[in-house]
Amino acid sequence: MTLTQWLVFLLIIQIIHGLGTWKLYIKAGRQAWEAFVPVYNAVVLMKIINRPWWWVILLFLPVVNVIMLIVIWVETARSFGKNQPLDTFLAIVTLGFYSYYLNYVADVEHVKDRSLQPKSSSGEWASSILFAIVAATVVHTYFMQPFTIPSSSLEKSLLVGDFLFVSKFHYGARVPMTTVALPMVHDTIPILKKKSYLFDDHYEKRKTSWINKLQLPYLRLPGFENIKRNEIVVFNQPADTLLDMNDFHPDRNYYKPIDKKTNLVKRCVGLPGDSLEVRNGYVYINGKKNELPDRAKLQFSYFVKPKTHQFNPNTLAARYDITDGAYPVDRQHSSYYFPAISDEALSKFKNHPNVGPITPNKKKKGERDSFIFPHDPRYNWNVDFFGPLYIPKKGATIALNLEVLPLYKRVISEYEGNDLKVKGNQIVINGEVANSYTFKQDYYWMMGDNRHNSIDARAWGVVPYNHVVGKPVFIWMSWNTHGKGLNKIRWNRMFTTVHSSGKATSYFIPFLVVLGGLIGFNKWRKHKKDKAELEY
């Protein structure tokens, strides 16, 4: 729905609320008209049910408000003496319309200054759990989200098994577009393998379905910084066509809400307005080779021939910190494939007495890879030789023709919502012949440092700004599945920052010291308070 449609929808909700509660407002000593005034009626209702005014704010936060509406329905019934389990059940299953029964049929009285303490341990437990979910959802949605590194595309900077905190507020928190969804669950409900949100992805129905009309338009709260070149960014995969990462088809339209597309983490090497090119695996921006931060380590794949029978690829990989080990190319083990070796590791690895000839596994210039964007036979691009490509910038205008169209077709039609057709030699956008196009938002180029083992922008193209989730800032835990015992935890990576320069420093010990100090101080303060009360 558009913003105007949402305002009309909310106005209708206010009328429904007013009609179902105006007598209850009167019984609580208020005026009937107060039940119909948007926002103000919620403030008054908080006074009626003896709850704080700031609950009103929670009613206007997507996803959180679904939980809060249920709470309000139940609290309204209890504020008029209906606090039995059956009343709670009816308030929930009728989606709040139980208030119509209380308003027009039941003989109820307002319980002024009612106790908010749960009448049983189970009620106290349920209340605590409910508000813990609300608080966690607010933090998760608007401030900080936990994230796990699933692949080695940014190996050396971020390792498989790193647990991150991703800041939503650096670039500005994105207001959830999917309004009806389980809190803190992304695309799929674990174990059940069912969608965690209400959405109709059927091609024929996706634009007309009433379910999809519940989607909010894109809105982002103000942030305090822009995405910088070479920063690591978490974003929703724009060409998400999959239930899992093993089913990637970038040319297929599989519809998901933007905020429910697969979360990925890559390095932003290209900014809006840049001209980007990949030469022999290295990125060039506006004709100049891109220099990565000191923590970043580019990696490429190689074929390695053993020099002696003592050649042990896994031992060598561990010794020289080579990612992903190695695989024999043939049954005779006359050659091995190493998926990812950094330049630093290669300089040492090649001098080992058991290592023979090393051949880079790189494509030739002009050798087309159909898997590579823009998936058009006119562009002979591959993972190692790509571009040049102009990265769209909001407000920038490009000349449009059939040669250029494959590069920006998805941007114009999918990301910016235009009706695009080709009729003969003409490009028609929204029913009009177009020779140029002006972009509506900024776009970014996201790549992995593990250049031959990363599904990134080379596969699907640019990433729209409305797909950006946030900025990884902190590694709070790192789990090594290949480790044993206590070595399963990478202790030197716990409580390290993501974007600082120089060798990563763990702040885990200082954290434990501060935590211990806080616990000790609270115990001392409680002991002092208890002692003072006894003396009194």
- Span between termini: 63 Å
Spans where pLDDT lies below 50 across 5 or more residues: 243-248
Shape: globular
Rg calculated over all Cα atoms: 29 Å
Instruction: Characterize the main sheet.
Output: 8 strands, antiparallel
How many runs of DSSP E, i.e. beta strands?
A: 23
Q: Pairing-aware structural class of the strands and helices?
A: alpha+beta
Strand content: 15-25%
Question: What features would you describe in this structure?
Answer:
By secondary structure, the chain is of the alpha+beta class. Helices cover 28% and strands 19% of the residues. The protein is built from 12 helices and 23 strands. The strands form 6 sheets. Strands 1, 2, 5, 6, 20, 21, 22 and 23 form an 8-stranded antiparallel sheet that branches. Strands 9-8-7-14 form a 4-stranded antiparallel sheet, with no helix packed on it. Helix 1 (3-27) packs parallel to helix 6 (98-104) and helix 4 crosses helix 5 (85-93). The protein is globular, with a radius of gyration of 29 Å. Residues 243-248 have low confidence and may be disordered.
